[in-house]
Amino acid sequence: xxxxxxxxxxxxxxxxxxxxxxxxxxxxxxxxxxxxxxxxxxxxxxxxxxxxxxxxxxxxxxxxxxxxxxxxxxxxxxxxxxxxxxxxxxxxxxxxxxxxxxxxxxxxxxxxxxxxxxxxxxxxxxxxxxxxxxxxxxxxxxxxxxxxxxxxxxxxxxxxxxxxxxxxxxxxxxxxxxxxxxxxxxxxxxxxxxxxxxxxxxxxxxxxxxxxxxxxxxxxxxxxxxxxxxxxxxxxxxxxxxxxxxxxxxxxxxxxxxxxxxxxxxxxxxxxxxxxxxxxxxxxxxxxxxxxxxxxxxxxxxxxxxxxxxxxxxxxxxxxxxxxxxxxxxxxxxxxxxxxxxxxxxxxxxxxxxxxxxx
Length: 359
Hints:
This protein is of the alpha+beta class. The chain has helices at residues 19-59, 81-91, 93-111, 116-136, 142-156, 160-167, 185-211, 299-303, 341-344, and strands spanning 217-219, 226-233, 247-257, 260-267, 272-279, 284-291, 308-316, 322-326, 329-335. The chain is built from nine helices and nine strands. It starts with 18 loop residues before the first helix and ends in a 15-residue tail after the last helix. Mean pLDDT is 89; it is low at 1-7.
C-alpha cells in the first residue's frame, strides 16, 4: 500500500523556449524565404529576358519578316506547315506587332515586383498560344515554348491561392505576397531605387541587341518588283512538258534586306526555284536560285547546294511589259495581276463590291 501521506507527482510543464532558440527559428525562416524569393527572381528574370527577345523581334518585324511579292509563286501544297504559319504572321504587321507587345509587356511587368503576377499571367497566356501554334504548325521550338510556359507558372505560384480564391471562393481576398530580395529595410530602400533603373537598362540593352540583329530593310517598288508571267519566249518548247525548262512566271520582291530581295521562278515543267536577287545597275539584276528544300533534307545539306546565278538585263516597256535578256533568255513578261492580289488587296472599313472575297 502506498503511503497516504505522500502526495501524487504533478507533471512539470514544458519550459518556455529560450530567446536564442526563437531568434534562430526566425532567422532560419527569414533566410529560407529570402532564398526562395531569390530563386523566384532568377526564374522571372530569365523569363523576362526571353520574352523581351521574342517580343522585340516581332515588334521590329524581324522574326517573321514582312509579306513580299518575291514569295508569290509558291503554292499551298508546296509549303511546309511552318512556312504557312510564317507567311500568315508576316502578312499582317498588326498581328505580329501586337504579339510582340504582349510578350514584351509581360516581360516589363515581370521586372517590377508589384506587377509580377500580372506579368506571369500574361506570359502564361502568351506561351500557351505559342505552344499550340508550335505544335499545330510543327515549329521546331516546342520544347522552348514548353519551358517558358512552365517558368511562367512557377513565377505565378505564390499568387495562385489568391487567384483560386478570386474565382472559386467568396471569402475575403487578402493582400498578396510581395517579392522581397532584401529583407533588411536599409538595403531594401536602396534596391527599390536601383531595381527599376537596372530593369530599364536591361530592357534597353535587349531591345537594342535584338533590333540590331536583323539586316537593314528597304523597299523599292520600281520594276522589276512584282509578279510577272511570260508573254513571249524566243526559245523553242521541249517535246515533252516534263522536260520543258523555259520560264513560266517570275516574282521579284520589293522588300530588300541588305540590298537583296526575294525572288521565285516557276518553270514550264512545274519546278519552282527560289532565292534572292540584287539590283546591280539601273537595268541589271543578279539572281541566286535554288530548288525548294526537300523533306528530310537538313538545313546544312540544303545550303551546300550551289545556287544557280543569273545576270539579267531588265527593261520596262512603255506598255508596262518587261523585257528580260541574258543567260540564254530573251523574254517579254507581262504583269500578273491575279498573282499579286494577296499583296495588293489591302484593308477597307467599308463593304466592297466584291465582298465577301474568299478564294
